[in-house]
From TrEMBL:
Its main location: membrane. Residues 83-211 form the MotA/TolQ/ExbB proton channel domain. It comes from the Bacteria. PANTHER family: PROTEIN TOLQ, TOL-PAL SYSTEM PROTEIN TOLQ. It is a multi-pass membrane protein. It comes from Candidatus Marimicrobium litorale. This is Tol-Pal system protein TolQ. Part of the Tol-Pal system, which plays a role in outer membrane invagination during cell division and is important for maintaining outer membrane integrity.
Length: 236
């Protein structure tokens, strides 16, 4: 009765090139899973933080008080991210420009919007971190695995040409170990593609929410800017 080779035996007995392909795919899969978990936790925290800040922002709290609360947390070493980071960028620029009497209301609002747009771009960069690697793993892993398979089969048939007895049992182990490379390529690619599609959709949702908040906050600042300039004109 012929001895059946285990999966580990097939990997161990594979050619050096196929083993290198398997090692690359295994490393890519491990890194990809690490990034998937990292992004999952980041998006979960960003989602919770966004809803907490929106509830606080629309509760009617004074904007200066909300900004000071953020300063206190920042001084304690807490990172200010997400929607609150956009709010702080816009409010800080608004407060700075509003103190300059020579600037009209439109210039103050436009400056605040520019500051918030920069903050939105920074937040989008944080959200999209690691997504490019997942996309690369998802798109290239099957081809890397296919390369290992083709190389392994080619190696097996080259050995068959030098064999005196050409049977299926002679090439079966070599073909089996080569096909493992394709399986590993799919194992690395499928989770990466699914995670990339999921996270890319979440990035789009966050970006839309940030843009909506920027427009809403700009409207609030616009009313405050016009009220401030009208009061200054009446006092003068």
């Amino acid at each position: 009765m012929e001895e059946q080779l285990s999966l580990l035996d097939l990997v161990w007995n594979a050619s050096f090139t196929v083993q290198m392909v398997m090692a690359i795919l295994l490393l890519a899969s491990i890194i990809s899973w690490y990034m998937i978990v990292n992004r999952f936790l980041y998006f979960r925290d960003a989602h919770d933080e966004m809803y907490r800040f929106e509830e606080r922002f629309w509760s009617g709290i004074d904007l200066s008080q909300l900004y000071r609360e953020g300063n206190e947390r920042a001084s304690d070493g807490q990172a200010i991210l997400g929607m609150e980071s956009i709010f702080r960028a816009g409010f800080k620029e608004f407060s700075r420009l509003a103190q300059q009497p020579e600037m009209d209301s439109e210039a103050v609002i436009e400056g605040s919007r520019r500051a918030m747009r920069v903050a939105v771009m920074r937040e989008e960069e944080r959200l999209e971190r690691h997504l490019a690697f997942m996309a690369s793993v998802g798109s290239t892993s099957p081809y890397i695995g296919l390369f290992g398979t083709v190389w392994g089969i080619m190696h097996s048939f080259r050995g068959l040409a030098n064999s005196t007895q050409a049977t299926l049992a002679t090439v079966a182990p070599g073909i089996s170990e080569a096909l493992i490379a394709t399986a590993m390529g799919l194992f690395a690619a499928i989770p990466a593609v699914l995670a990339y599609n999921r996270f890319a959709a979440r990035v789009e949702v966050f970006s839309n929410r940030y843009d909506t908040f920027t427009d809403e906050f700009s409207g609030i600042l616009s009313r405050q800017a016009y009220a401030l300039r009208n009061r200054e004109r009446q006092e003068s």
